[in-house]
Design a protein that fits this description.
The complex is a heterodimer of chains A (309) and B (287). Chain A has helices spanning 2-7, 10-15, 28-54, 71-79, 81-112, 119-131, 134-144, 151-158, 173-183, 186-197, 201-209, 214-241, 246-251, 263-273, 277-305; strands at 57-58, 66-67. Chain A is an all-alpha fold. Classes of the chains: A mainly alpha (309), B mainly alpha (287). Chains A and B meet through α3, α5, α6, α7 and α8 of A and α1, α4, α5, α6 and α9 of B.
Chain lengths: 309, 287
């Protein structure tokens, strides 16, 4: 049957007055999505279920998983100070780096949306740091923030300030990483810039006719119209902050005094340094619950501050 | 808003000043990276007698310029091997991800079958799934398959279609008028021919965006090699550099030379494909 649909000369049938619409073979769609479907079942569905199972087990890879019920979760929530430390560090990082990133990204985008000579050169300059590979950027900042001979403290010495030990100090290490994240804000800036270009010009013209000044135009047109993009960025950053890993791993390894032990790093150590695969799976599921709850919460506030045209 | 308003001269001057002041902290770290990579140890480390010293303008330009840091660094660490491994992985994953994503996207965008919408939503929701959740069983799976220590865990998954690329391509494929492909279908074209000879040539811009993202993603990837590679002859640049940092943490000239070698290709790629780059990032943030 399937074969004949293709073999029949359809235009010929049409001309004869038959209403013939080409019948797509039903199996072909499945054939096309097969690569993804196999990957989905093998690398997402199976690991998803397996990690839930493992989170109730004691498992060190070498011997078979042993069911221990809720013991992992109980240990995590009741007697693991490192878990709470990692959670605190991650929240701390998120609470400061996300709003600062949004503010810096929008501020730069507004500046770069102006009609100035050489504006594309500025855009390139501000975008450049965001494409530096994470490992290279981490090494670079480790060097720049070197307490004794680093660039930052060398420059601070000019104005008579003895800079802190930055990544070597438990009280400055998170600040250092937040500063570094702001340096790479160029990617978000481009997204805001694209958002600005989408704001219809007639809104500004109307505001101009009504006598609105620059600040009023930014406050009452630009920012509200940009809220969908801000919303998207905040959601992605919240999810991203719980995956913050490479910088901490390369630059500090979690130290000093566990001040940069972020959630994903703590989980990685548990899994691959101590081979506590069951325990780490329980951590992953708590991570999933937190991220899910946080995303849900942001979506709940959605209607209050996100405007669509 | 810019076109509607012609700003007075003093505002333009002020804007330039602000932009230049902001551009300095943006670029200075990169300049410092290159500068350090061309210095001798004597230039990097101040003499003990000087103690704690300020860094001035004169320190930005190395004097004398130590070009041999680069060949020396290459001898110190097998950057050549790392570079070769990285390029190989980039090539394979880029081809794999773009091809497979295009095939899958055609299935979602231009064919009909039961459960298509549900599966598409399932695919999109995997974008929100933190990779930590699947990381451990995936690792065990690869270990069980005997892939641990080989490149396979880093390459094979890219042939399964990348959800984000599929999403971008589906958006694009849907804009291609149905009349165009239906006409071909009436002339006896099957889906495979429509896909290969009509959709793919039209989709080159979006394929290029995905290729660029995948290439950079693999080039930068650290966690993958960290988990799956265990012998130095298979290390990538990202992982090799981090290992070098761990073993020779005070060889700043070599470390910065390595970081420069690692960064320059990406920056070059950016200047070569600026438009694809910016549009790609802008669409990621779109609606």
């Amino acid at each position: 049957m399937k074969q004949t649909a293709d073999q029949i000369n359809l235009p010929h049938f049409r001309r004869m007055g038959f209403l013939v619409w080409p019948i797509p073979r039903p199996g072909i769609g499945w054939l096309f999505i097969m690569p993804w479907l196999i990957g989905f079942l093998l690398f997402t569905v199976f690991p998803f279920i397996a990690s839930l199972y493992l989170s109730f087990c004691s498992y060190d890879v070498l011997s078979a998983p042993r069911w221990i019920g809720l013991a992992n979760y109980r240990d995590l929530l009741l007697n693991d100070p490192l878990f709470y430390k990692a959670l605190y560090n991650t929240l701390c990082y998120a609470v400061f780096s996300i709003p600062l990133g949004v503010a810096a990204g929008i501020g730069l985008a507004l500046l770069l949306d102006m009609n100035l000579r050489g504006i594309s050169i500025y855009r390139t300059i501000f975008f450049l740091p965001s494409i530096v590979p994470v490992v290279a950027a981490s090494m670079l900042w480790l060097w720049i923030l070197n307490p004794q001979i680093g660039l930052v403290n060398g420059l601070l010495a000019h104005i008579g300030i003895k800079g802190p030990a930055w990544l070597g100090s438990a009280s400055w290490s998170k600040t250092s990483l937040i500063v570094m994240s702001i340096w790479g804000v160029g990617g978000a800036m481009i997204i805001y810039l694209a958002g600005l270009k989408d704001i219809p010009l007639h809104l500004y013209e109307a505001a101009l006719v009504d006598g609105a000044n620059t600040w009023q135009r930014v406050r009452h047109i630009t920012l509200p119209m940009l809220t969908p993009v801000i919303f998207f960025n905040v959601v992605m950053s919240v999810i991203g902050s719980f995956q913050y890993f490479t910088q901490a791993y390369v630059m500090t390894g979690g130290g000093p005094e566990d001040s940069t032990l972020f959630y994903a790093l703590c989980l990685f150590n548990r899994a691959f340094s101590y081979l506590n695969m069951g325990y780490a799976s329980a951590m992953a599921w708590i991570l999933l619950v937190i991220v899910f709850a946080a995303t849900l919460l942001i979506f709940r506030t959605h209607r209050r501050w996100v405007h669509y045209e | 808003m810019s076109d509607a308003l012609r700003r007075p001269a003093w505002i333009r001057l002020l804007s330039h000043t602000v932009l230049i002041l902001l551009a300095i902290p943006c670029l200075l770290p990169l300049v410092w990276m290159i500068s350090t990579s061309l210095k001798t140890d004597a230039q990097i480390f101040p003499a003990p007698s000087e103690g704690f010293s300020a860094i001035g303008l004169k320190d930005i330009v190395p004097n004398p310029v130590q070009w041999r840091n680069y060949p020396d660094a290459l001898r110190f660490v097998p950057f050549g091997t790392y570079l070769q491994n990285t390029l190989m992985l980039c090539l394979v994953t880029t081809v794999g991800a773009v091809l497979s994503s295009a095939v899958v996207a055609y299935g979602f965008a231009r064919t009909r079958f039961r459960g298509r919408k549900i599966l598409f939503i399932a695919m999109l929701s995997t974008l929100m799934l933190p990779p930590q959740v699947t990381m451990i069983p995936t690792f065990i799976l690869y270990k069980y398959l005997g892939w641990y220590g080989t490149c396979l865990p880093l390459t094979v998954p890219s042939f399964m279609g990348a959800p984000f690329f599929v999403f971008l391509m589906v958006q694009f494929f849907r804009t291609i008028p149905r009349e165009l492909t239906e006409a071909a279908r009436i002339d006896g074209c099957g889906d495979i021919r429509i896909f290969a000879t009509m959709i793919i040539p039209l989709a080159v811009p979006v394929l290029a965006t995905c290729a660029l993202f995948q290439f950079i993603g693999t080039w930068n990837d650290f966690l993958g090699p960290l988990i799956y590679l265990n012998s130095p002859d298979k290390y990538t640049l990202a992982y090799g550099l981090q290992q070098f940092l761990g073993s020779h943490g005070s060889k700043w000239a070599y470390l910065m030379a390595g970081a420069t070698v690692f960064t320059v290709p990406i920056i070059a790629l950016f200047f070569l494909a600026q438009k694809t780059f910016i549009q790609g990032i802008a669409t990621t943030g779109g609606k």
